[in-house]
Amino acid sequence: MIQLARPLGAAVLALAITATVLAVPARAVPSTTITFTSSPTAAIGQYNMLTVSITSSDGVTQPEGGVVFRNQSGEIVGTAATGRGSSVANAVATLPWWPTQQTSYSFTAQYNVAAGVSLAGSTTAEPFSILATPSGQHVSMSAPQMYLGVPATLTAAVYPGSLQGSIGFTGNGWGLGPSVPIVNGGATFTFTPGSLGWQEFGASFSSTNVAGVQGQVAQWVNVLPASAQPQLLPTAAPFPATLTPAKATATGPRPARRPASHFAKPARR
After folding, report:
1. Which of the listed residues 139, 170, 192, 257 has the most CB atoms within 10 Å of its CB?
2. Maximum CA pair distance of the chain?
3. Tens digits of per-residue pLDDT, 70-125?
């Protein structure tokens, strides 16, 4: 039997196609980025939220999985599952936390990919700092009980105390007077309430030495009639000191006790 030889050109072409297929690199796994979106301040003694945003680089893959939050010591604060974010390629994760003192807290976050999701995990590029303050803002305010026609003083403080600027005090949304410069981390404003009932008093602050730092707080106060003021009792004059005579101390033997009389009375005739 005569076998026909395969054309040399066809064999070369087949080898070239095979080599081309083998040379195609594997599809790269899309990367992700994770960043904090939390407020830079938090309220002491209250639940606050640690929030992060995760985004995939391909723009189409949902970053599913979980996030591990750690403190400045590297200890795990908690974990949270991811949820749908602002787009199909974005996810968010939120964890409640509770600051206990006025200080700056630092956190990092790590995104772990869920099984079956073709994405690479990621970690925040640098720690995220949150300043814990009494109000959860860079400014706090304290208002006393107020009485109609009686001067009252509003007190405000800024955090940290090194911030500079001025504080504007308001009543029911209206300015009570000119802004008060901050001195030693705070400011005060004295005014006289002119109406009765529940009213909202506030303080707003914008720093002049740190760009973008500002805050605004408010407090409700029920302004009462002047007659409702607690009546202070007059202070009684102190009683004169009374000298207590010292007890006499016997130096000799105690006299014998006189015996009781046991004689019966004679019968009456």
Report:
1. 139
2. 181
3. 999 999 999 999 999 999 999 999 999 999 999 999 999 999 999 999 999 999 99
- Distance between CA atoms of residues 50 and 132, nearest Å: 13
Beta bridge partners of 129: 106
Q: Which two tokens stand for residue 8?
A: 């040399």
Any residues with CB less than 8 A from the CB of 258 and at least 6 apart, and which? none
Compute the distance between CA of residue 216 and CA of residue 169 in angstroms, rounded to an integer. Answer: 10
Cα separation, 73 vs 96, in Å, equals 18
Name residues whose C-beta falls within 8 Å of residue 164's C-beta, 6 or more positions apart in sequence. Answer: 182, 207, 208, 209
Residue owning tokens 């911030």 = 163
Using alpha carbons, select from 142, 161, 153, 141 the residue that is nearest to residue 207.
161
Rounded-to-integer distance, Cα 131 and Cα 167, Å? 20
Annotate 177-221 with DSSP letters as a single string.
SS-EE-BTTEEEEEE---S-EEEEEEEEEEESSSTT-EEEEEEEE
Q: What digits encode the pLDDT tens for the residues 33-70?
A: 999 999 999 999 999 999 999 999 999 999 999 999 99
For 1, the token pair is 């039997």
The pTM assigned to this predicted structure is 0.72
